[in-house]
From TrEMBL:
Belongs to the DNA repair enzymes AP/ExoA family. Its EC number is 3.1.11.2. It comes from Sphingomonas natans. Keywords: Hydrolase, Magnesium, Metal-binding. GO terms for molecular function: double-stranded DNA 3'-5' DNA exonuclease activity. Residues 4-248 form the Endonuclease/exonuclease/phosphatase domain. Pfam families: Exo_endo_phos. PANTHER family: EXODEOXYRIBONUCLEASE III (PTHR43250:SF1). This is Exodeoxyribonuclease III. The keyword Metal-binding applies. It is an enzyme of class 3 (hydrolase). The keyword Hydrolase applies. It comes from the Bacteria.
């Protein structure tokens, strides 16, 4: 089974790119972020033509998350994280698909730091950690995947010295990421490529993609009940080079049958 995460940076504006990649890569399940579209503008019909069912939580102009499946029905279990009822951002969606519980997320950026946006990022991270603890304790095969807006280590960022004041590389955000991993989650991409320079995002500015001046901020985390099924993981970095593409590339894992 092949499962991917992809921050599409506007699902309707990038729809040709998304459909081209889906047709090429043929992932069984996909978590999407930054739909930047209200619910009624989600391109359900175009995805169905490729054989994908979908659930989504849209938001006009910002945020938005979805789960796609061509591996069977999607049984939605949650929209949004518990713990902050007034948070109306569309950033988390969870469902059972093909025997796996999948949480798709778009973690807040947090810039500028310090400030209220960074405070919100840390609160959101704490809520994720609290919820993820219950997922681990369930003993089920669980995956949390999406745009975490965190580079965990210096190996995950081009010229880390330039990012010391950024919310994506802040010590508090990186510490939160490792608090999450310490629950027992496996960072699939880093576990598979422990010593490689591997990125998932390249800015549109300063010719970043051509220079491979990237960041690793899109992650797939596997619970203990799922991690022993991990066969491979990678980044479809070439998609970042396509015309009118997202600034992120799709990230994927392959799992053996459970």
């Amino acid at each position: 089974m092949k499962i991917a995460t992809y921050n599409v940076n506007g699902i309707n504006g990038r729809l040709p790119v998304l459909l081209r990649w889906l047709s090429e890569a043929l992932p069984d399940i996909v978590c999407l972020q930054e739909l930047k579209a209200p619910d009624e503008k989600f391109p359900e019909a175009a995805l169905a033509e490729l054989g994908y069912r979908a659930i989504w939580q849209g938001q006009k102009s910002w945020n938005g998350v979805a789960i796609l499946s061509r591996a069977g029905e999607i049984h939605e279990t949650r929209r949004g994280l518990p713990g902050e009822a007034e948070d109306t951002h569309s950033r988390y969606i969870e469902a059972a698909v093909a025997g796996i519980l999948i949480g798709g997320l778009y973690l807040p950026n947090g810039n500028p730091r310090p400030g209220p946006k960074f405070d919100y990022k840390l609160r959101w991270f704490d809520r994720l950690i609290d919820h993820a603890a219950g997922l681990i304790e369930s003993g089920l095969p669980v995956m949390i995947a999406g745009d975490f807006n965190v580079m965990p280590t210096e190996r995950d960022v081009y010229k880390p010295e330039r990012w010391l004041d950024d919310a994506l590389f802040a010590p508090e955000a990186r510490a939160a990421y490792f608090r999450l991993l310490d629950q027992g989650w496996t960072d699939a991409l880093r576990t598979t490529h422990p010593d490689e320079t591997i990125y998932t995002f390249w800015d549109y500015f300063r010719n970043a993609y051509a220079r491979n001046a990237g960041l690793r901020i899109d992650h797939l985390l596997l619970s203990p009940a799922l991690s022993d099924r991990l066969v491979a993981a990678g980044v479809d970095a070439h998609v970042r080079g396509w015309e009118k593409t997202s600034d992120h590339a799709p990230v994927w894992i392959e799992l053996r049958d459970g």
